[in-house]
Write a structure and sequence with these properties.
- The complex is a heterodimer of chains A (587) and B (235).
- Chain A is α/β, with parallel strands linked by helices and 587 residues long.
- Chain A has helices spanning 15-21, 62-72, 79-99, 145-159, 224-231, 259-262, 276-279, 289-301, 324-330, 332-342, 404-425, 438-449, 456-470, 477-494, 508-532, 550-553; strands spanning 2-11, 30-34, 50-51, 113-122, 132-139, 163-166, 168-176, 179-187, 192-203, 236-237, 242-249, 266-268, 306-307, 313-318, 351-360, 364-365, 371-373, 380-386, 391-392, 474-475, 541-542, 555-560, 569-574.
- Helix content of chain A is 34%, strand content 22%.
- In chain A, the strands form 6 sheets. In chain A, strands 1, 2, 6, 7, 8, 9, 17 and 18 form an 8-stranded mixed β-sheet that branches. In chain A, strands 11, 12, 13, 14 and 15 form a 5-stranded antiparallel β-sheet that branches. Chain A has a 3-stranded antiparallel β-sheet with strand order 3-5-4.
- Chain B folds into 2 domains: 2-104, Roll (Ubiquitin-like (UB roll)), CATH 3.10.20.30; 107-234, Alpha-helical ferredoxin (Fumarate Reductase Iron-sulfur Protein, Chain B, domain 2, Orthogonal Bundle), CATH 1.10.1060.10.
- Chain B is 33% helix and 14% strand.
- Chain B contains 8 helices and 7 strands; from the N terminus they run E-E-H-E-E-E-E-E-H-H-H-H-H-H-H.
- In chain B, strands 2-1-5-3-4 form a 5-stranded mixed β-sheet, covered by helices on one side.
Chain lengths: 587, 235
């Protein structure tokens, strides 16, 4: 076992982690630990854009952005945090450009912006209550915005000589009393266990898409950060809110950005009808993602979908009517995906699409400075921070608008980095417990020496299929209750998992086995949150409780792991409501 | 339908040298990705089979592999893109040290990328708003900015194979991305770095890089623009 000491440890080298790392001042030691080489992080797959009311193409205001985000969140987002994010957005994007991001440009050389789902302005600019229409708020670079952002942030880290530990797989937090004192990690190249003693740890570990069978997420999306927190007696917030992006490539789940609709693409059912006109008369195909996904599933349920060769159903995304320059310059990557993976020519034919698990609105509860909190009073956990998709500030509430995640990363990554920089100046290292690495070593040993009959791949597929089936877009009590026993049984069977690879060098068999544990740990609060919340709001849709119920449910869920296989403990905390009183969510 | 993968294996803990192992697998149709088949081999038959992957749709650059003699991404190569009537041969990308099976040591590749100072260098302070840039100038960068650091180009380059110090195509594409960024003020520094015998002049316009690039970046063209710029600088 090898020991290190750094003032700051950041777990995850995506947008949030890298942006935080840039805030750690010289004179303090910082290490960014990532289970993949930093540029492989999933931020790089983001396509459509990053939202900010720059007003480069048409008049815009951060207050309209804030309203859209609050309404988009189905009024569950914390408005104080949303206000911070939308106000800071303008500065944050300009800062990105100064760092070198190669944005697409308007004719007068400013950062180009396009329309995106749920982003609106009042039709009559002098009347804020007038009808809302789509506004160009998404700053973009072709359809590779995430890729260029991630590269630019990484390049700035190179410039600042940030210290990286790539291909180190963090397996656990080290808690010292009520504080966080570091992390434990496995060096993937050697299987050696490393203990990182730190004053402050930031979890920027991304999402949990791989809990579901169809997902846009990379294979790294295994919910690691959620599992660490949950297994250390800390709560997870709003886990029931799982975003299914409406347009994943049929069967593969590969993301086809909302930008396709932002540039004018439309969704069609098997009657050739632009069905979103019925579900969201004002913004139509640019309605928030949860509404579009439900609309698509409803069309399919009512017999207006297309049946694929594997028995699953899809609808069509049509961009064939768009000018060639738009397709070539603005959405080249996604048209490439349609061609490569489905053999569909988007300039001539519609693209088969179906909802794909895309984003975790819920996660590790934090303040607006990325400080992790442990209860409904927002008591802080000294030394522990979280930012990005892994965190729940909450700026996305029950549903996230497109372009707000890339924004979330840099706004709260930066705030977290600044908060950490302040914290480490006046703090000593918390004592390192002697048994810090014990759990990791015992889990790894158990898996390596197991003679059990369960295989990682098969068990994981079972989890993914069951979650897709019972905790998907439309949920009900019976399925959710069944799933609570299923997950118990899957976790029991996980203890019998054995792997083929008994070696020490680059043992991805072992890594995937540990990741499966994280997936199972993350699935439990998702299921229990969904079962607990007896209303429909945003992305959480209960067929048995189809209405939004502000009187009883305008609150955040907090879920704590229980000992010895008992049902998790549930608590609630209030939503911050400042400027916008909850109203009916219609588009 | 049945397809066979013939994969180069090597476990330094056990093997004195690499060898080939065949896996007979079941494919749904010819649209399956080579990566899907690798996963099937690993998850169903042999968990020791080791390879890197993440996004599974050609944007992260993790899974560069030599498929039937050509460097490609396992996740964006489908069965219909190869001749699957014979065993499909998978080997690690060439000329980098093999860690295990299809996983290679990318350290040298990353070092060369870092050597060109791949970040915006500015001496004048930025304006309050974004620096203005004409769209044609922004778009000139898009092709080189597309690079996902997969190493297909550099490890398919005979100049790289024969000269371990050659900075390589990927690093040069990165250099282009900044030298030709109208906002950058560090062009001369970077041009000095690549203006060496092991720098840009080792490029003998062989074009393997263009063939190999999964993002369809015209690597050689970008290198030629840098050569032109260097020649202009001389005069």
């Amino acid at each position: 076992m090898i020991k290190h000491q750094f003032d700051v440890i950041i777990v995850g080298a995506g947008g949030a982690g890298l942006r935080a790392a840039l805030e750690i001042p010289e004179g303090f030691s910082c290490a960014v630990i990532s289970k993949v080489f930093p540029t492989r992080s999933h931020t790089g797959a983001a396509q459509g854009g990053i939202g900010a009311a720059l007003g480069n193409e048409e008049e815009d205001s951060w207050e309209w952005h804030m309203f859209d985000t609050v309404k988009g969140s189905d009024y569950l987002g914390d408005q104080d945090a949303i206000e911070i994010m939308c106000q800071d957005a303008i500065r944050a994007i300009i800062e990105l450009e100064h760092m070198g991001v190669p944005f697409s440009r308007t004719p007068d050389g400013k950062i180009a912006q396009r329309r995106f789902g749920g982003h609106t302005k009042p039709e009559n600019l002098s009347d804020p209550d007038s009808k809302r229409i789509a506004v160009r708020r998404s700053c973009y670079s072709a359809d590779r915005t995430g890729h260029v952002m991630l590269r630019t942030l990484y390049e700035n880290c190179l410039k600042q000589k940030v210290n990286f530990f790539p291909e180190f797989f963090v397996t656990d937090l080290i808690m010292s009393g009520k504080s966080c004192a570091g992390v434990v990690a496995i060096d993937i190249a050697t299987s050696e266990v490393h203990v990182f003693h730190a004053k402050a740890v930031m979890l920027a570990t991304g999402g949990y898409g791989r809990v579901y069978r169809i997902t846009s997420n990379a294979h790294v999306g295994t919910g690691d950060g959620f599992a660490f927190v949950y297994n250390n007696g800390l709560p997870l917030e709003d886990m029931e809110f799982v975003q299914f992006h409406p347009t994943g490539l049929w069967k593969l789940g590969i993301l086809i950005s909302e930008a396709a609709r932002g540039e004018g693409g439309i969704l069609l059912n098997n009657k050739g009808e632009r069905f979103m006109e019925r579900y969201a008369p004002t913004v139509k195909d640019l309605a928030p993602r949860d509404m579009v996904s439900r609309a698509m599933l409803t069309e399919i349920r009512e017999g207006r979908g297309f049946k694929g060769s594997d028995g699953t159903f899809y609808v069509q995304l049509d961009v064939s009517h768009l000018p060639k320059e738009v397709i070539d310059d603005k959405i080249p990557e996604i048209t490439g995906f349609a061609r490569t993976y489905l053999g569909v020519e988007p300039t001539k034919e519609p693209i088969p699409v179906q909802p794909t698990c895309h984003y975790a609105m819920g996660g590790i509860p934090t303040t607006a400075d990325a400080e992790v909190t442990r209860d409904k009073k927002n008591t802080k956990v000294p030394g522990l921070y979280a930012a990005g998709e892994a965190a729940c500030v909450s700026v996305h509430g029950a549903n996230r608008l497109g372009t707000n995640s890339l924004l979330d990363l840099i706004v709260f990554g930066r705030r977290g980095g600044k908060a950490i920089a302040k914290f480490i100046k006046d703090t000593e290292f918390a004592p390192l417990p002697d048994d810090a690495a014990e759990k990791t070593i015992s889990v790894a040993d158990r898996i390596m020496n197991s003679r059990g009959k369960e295989k990682v791949g098969a068990l994981r597929t079972e989890l993914q299929e069951k979650m897709m089936d019972k905790v998907g877009i439309f949920r009900n009590e019976k399925d959710l209750k069944e799933m609570t026993s299923e997950i118990k049984s899957l976790r029991e069977r996980y203890k019998e998992v054995a792997i083929d690879d008994k070696g020490k060098i680059f043992n991805t068999d072992l890594i995937e086995a540990i990741e499966l544990g994280n997936l199972l740990d993350t699935a439990e609060p998702i299921i229990h949150g969904a079962l607990t919340r007896r209303e429909s709001r945003g992305a959480h849709s209960r067929e048995d409780f189809p209405k939004r119920d502000d009187k009883n449910w305008l609150k955040h869920t907090l879920i704590y792991k229980s000992e010895r296989n008992r049902a998790p403990k549930v608590d609630f905390k209030p939503v911050s409501i400042t400027r916008f009183q909850p109203k009916e969510r219609k588009y | 339908m049945k397809v066979t993968l013939r994969i180069q294996r090597y476990n330094p803990e056990r093997d004195s040298e690499p060898y080939f192992q065949e896996f007979e697998l079941e494919a749904g149709d010819d649209k399956e990705r080579i990566l899907d088949l690798l996963h099937q081999a690993k998850w169903k038959y042999d968990g020791t089979l080791t390879f890197r992957r993440s996004c599974a749709h050609g944007v992260c650059g993790s899974d560069a592999v030599k498929i039937n003699g050509r460097n490609r991404l396992a996740c964006s190569t489908l069965l219909k893109d190869v001749n699957y009537s014979k065993p499909i041969v998978l080997e690690p990308i060439p000329s980098l040290p093999i860690i295990k099976d299809l996983v290679v040591d990318m350290t040298d590749f990353y070092k060369k990328y870092e050597a060109v100072k791949p970040y915006l260098i500015t001496k004048t302070s930025p304006p309050e708003h974004e620096r203005l840039q004409q769209n044609e100038d922004a778009e000139r960068l898009f092709e080189s900015a597309k690079c996902i650091l997969c190493a297909c180009c550099t490890t398919s380059c005979p100049s790289s194979w024969s000269d371990p110090n050659y900075i390589g195509p990927a690093a040069l594409v990165k250099a282009y991305r900044f030298v030709f960024d109208t906002r950058d003020e560090g062009a001369d520094e970077r041009l000095d770095i690549i203006d060496t015998p092991d720098g840009i002049w080792r490029c003998h316009t062989i074009f393997n890089c263009v063939e190999a690039c999964p993002k369809e970046i015209n690597v050689t063209w970008h290198i030629s623009q840098l050569k032109k710029r260097l020649a202009e600088r001389e005069m």
